Amino acid sequence: MVNRDFKTNQLDYYIQDTWRALPKLTVTLGMRQMFIQTPYEVNGQQVSPTISMHDWAWVRALQAAMGSSEQPAISFIPSGKANGGNPFWPMAKSNIGPHVGLAYSANARTVIRAGFGIVFDNYGLGIANILATDGSAGLLGQNAVGGEWTTVDAAPRFTSLQLLPTFSVVRPPNSTITFPYTAPLGAGGVVSVADDKSRTPYSYALNLSVQRELPGGWVHR
Description:
This protein has two helices and 13 strands, in the order βββββαβββαβββββ. It is mainly beta. It has one domain. The strands form four sheets. The chain has a six-stranded antiparallel sheet, with no helix packed on it. It has a three-stranded antiparallel sheet with strand order 5-6-10, with no helix packed on it. A hairpin with a 5-residue loop joins strand 12 and strand 13. The longest helix is centred in the first third of the chain and has 13 residues.
């Protein structure tokens, strides 16, 4: 077994300022920026297609609409920082999430608060785990994961002493592969690739609350 150890670095910073716009209204403005390095395999066990799979998919969709089934062959080459190659996708440098908070004192015992913000997800290592689990063309020799491949949870099991699950014989992979590597047509294998133009997912966060001081010093929110 060849160990595949993915590494990434991330830098975040957050700045904010509070402004008392009115005697009863306070406005808080903030901004968070995330710099997320694309994960890479530290031992060089990483390959990527020689062409943009993002563009390939769009071109295939346009050709399919015109009734054309032609498609270029997909080859793989070593990639990633350890190989001095391109990353799976460009590093995210523009993940800027603004935040706004409002606090309004309706009276001495009641405060109304509202907030809005854009929150970015940290998704890179999840994709790297999928690529490491499902396999990459060329890293497993000339064999690829078959289309009938199942997870451990769905694998055949013993059902009785007389019925045994059947498995197809898998040949050991070829240890010599030259790059660029192009999988042969009709091999029936399945590999996973990352979108080379991936963008960090984000969501909008909204909140509204009313804080009321109850008799006896209790606070209900």
